[in-house]
Amino acid sequence: MAGTWGRVKSIFQAKTNTALDKLEDPRQTLDLSYEKQLEQLTQIRRSVADVATAKKRIELQAAELQKQADKLQGQAKAAMEQGNEDLAREALTRRGALASQLADLETQHQSVADQEQKLVSTMQTLQARIEQFRTQKETLKATYTAAEAQTKVGEAVAGISDSMGDAGAAMQRAQDKIASMQARAGAIDDLIATGALTDLTTPVDDIQAQLDKVGISSEVDQQLAALKAEISGPAASTPAALAEPEAPVADAEVVDPPHAGA
To answer: Which of 221, 39, 67 is nearest to 130 (CA)?
Structure first.
């Protein structure tokens, strides 16, 4: 049961990933990633500003303590000039406490300054990477847009090719049908001409049909006679007067013809 459920889960996850891939636009994903990097850069800049502010506060506090220390130093000197050693000692003691605080502030200031430097370095590195990513992002977006346009054009051309193929097939079927109809019409004309079919467009006249048949037969006879004469040659066409002379007739007594007045 566990194995079946695992297979179902894998299939569902695969189909979900496929659906998400179809819905995902890489250009939008790149823009979203760029925006997240900008947000990170903004956070680092805020951190740098906060550290710089803390360092400035330390510097101001140290300056104030140094001012107090200088004042106590002056008071101690003034007390000694008045011969008041105890007051001078008290002023110097307080100045010593301020010196210890100043040393701590200096340590904190150095630590904050180091932290600030690291943050600034990180910010600069991240900013350079973001700029590089932005350039690559725009290049990839332009390449994707060009590829998408090329794909759409290819799909359109493929669609046109399919349409042209269908149109060509339809045209071929039309040509075949026209040729078949023309052949059928020619065959019908031949059958009507030979009399195998009756031309219903003209009235039926049996007498005229017989006369036409006799006329056609007479014309055929004449053509046959002409062919025979042509094949037989000149001998067949020589007149009777030019034929071979007959045998000579025996001599007979010539009788004068009777005169008219006899």
So the answer is: 39
